[in-house]
Specification:
three-stranded antiparallel sheet; alpha+beta
Length: about 60
């Protein structure tokens, strides 16, 4: 099976601190990242559990 690469870039007209706060708000990722759930990561060293997918097809 061959592997591919997917890259996406977004320029946000927001202060870095605001953009970072949204990026690391793991429980709310589903609001802006289609078919994604994420939890954890509340403090430094925490484990983040995330999945993007539908049914049995997805990425963890």
């Amino acid at each position: 099976m061959s592997r591919g690469t997917l890259a996406v870039a977004v320029v946000a007209a927001a202060p870095v601190e605001d953009a970072w706060r949204v990026l690391v708000d793991w429980p709310r990722h589903a609001e802006w990242m289609f078919l994604t759930t994420a939890e954890g990561g509340d403090k430094e060293g925490d484990v983040i559990v995330a999945r993007t997918g539908l049914g049995p097809i997805g990425f963890t």
